[in-house]
Give the backbone structure.
Amino acid sequence: MRKTVLLADDSNTILMMQKMLLAKEPYDLVIARDGQEAYDKALSAKPDLIVLDVVMPKLTGFEVCTKLRAHDDTKSTPILLVTTRGEAENIQKGHEAGCTDYLTKPINGPEFLSKLRDHLSR
Amino acid sequence: MSGAKKDDSGLHYVERVRQDAKRYTRELLAETENLRKLVVLLEAEKRRLEDQLQAARDDAERFGREQAELHQRLADIENESRRFAEQFVEVERQNSNLANLYVASYQFAGTLHRDRVLEIILEILANLVGSEETAVFELDEQGEALRLVAANGIEPGPFRSVARGAGVIGSVAASGETWIVGESAPAEGPEARLTACVPLRLEDKVTGAIAIFRLLPQKSGLEPVDRELFDLLATHAAMALYCTGLRPARVPEAS
C-alpha cells in the first residue's frame, strides 16, 4: 500500500525541490503552503509522515507540531521539522513540540530521502 | 629286578618330558600362528584406518579450500554490494544537485514580475545555497555604479551604491568573473563577510551582481553544486530581470 507524505512549506522553491526528490518514490504527496493548511490537511489526509517547515504563515511548524501531537489521529505520526537554523536551542524547541526528527536547510537530497525512508519503514 | 624298574621309570619320565615338550612346542607354534594372524589382521586394520585418515585429511583439505573460496566469494559480494550502495548514494546526490539546478531554472521561467524575480533570487540563495545574508545589485544606466535592488539579512547602508570596480562587488561587476572566498584576494571592510560574489550577465554584458555574505551555520562551505548554481544564476537571473522590463503593463499578477 502506498504511503502518504504531507509536505508543508511556504517556499515554492523548497516544495518543488522536495517534490522532485520524491518523484520516483512510492509515496502520494499532499501539499500545504502555510501552517493552518498543514494542520487541516494532516487531519483530513491522515498522512504516514509529515515534513514541516518551521517558519510558515498563520501557524509556525512548532505550533502545528504541538497541535498535531495533542490530536489522537496524529499523536504518533512521524513529523520531520525543517529548520533554517540548526542550533541546539532550535532543535530542542522542535523536540519539545513533539517532532520526531529534523532537517536543516539547505536540504541535502540524500539525507532527506534517507530520513523519510527510515521513518516510513518503522 | 629293581634295577630294571628304575630304568623303566626313568624312560617314562624322559618320554613324558619329551611328550610335554612336543605339546608345548605345538601349543607355542599354534600360539605363534594365532599371533601372526592377529598381526596380519591388525596391519590390515591399520592400513584401513590410515586410508580412512587420509580420506578424512583429503576431505578436510577440500572443505578448507571450499570454505576459503566461499569466504572470498562472500567478500567479493560484500564489496560489490558496498560499491552499488556507494553508486546509489552518488546517483542520489547528483539527482539532488540536478533538482537544485532545475528548480532554480524553473522558478525564473515562471514569472515576469520584477519583485517576484528578486524574491526568487533571495529564496534560491537561502534555500538552495544556504545563506540568509544576501544582496542583489544592478548596474545603473551609465554602467558606473551598482545599485542595491534587493537584500536579505544585511545592513543595506554601505551597499546602497557601489562604484563599478570598487571592492570585491564592484570588481566582479567590472571583470564579469565570480569571486569566491579563499580563492582570490580577501574582502575587506563592509565586504569582509562575503563568501561569494556572482556577476549577472546577459551575453557578454555585465548587468549587475549577487553578493552572498555569511552561510548558514550548519553549512561548512561552498560545494561544487553551489558553483554550478552560481553559473546558472549569473545568466538566468540576469535574463529574468531583463525580461521583467519587457513585460507589457497589462499582464495581470498571478493570484
The first strand of chain A starts at residue 3 and ends at 8. The helical segments of chain A are 12-21, 35-45, 61-69, 88-97, 109-120. The longest helix of chain A spans residues 109-120.
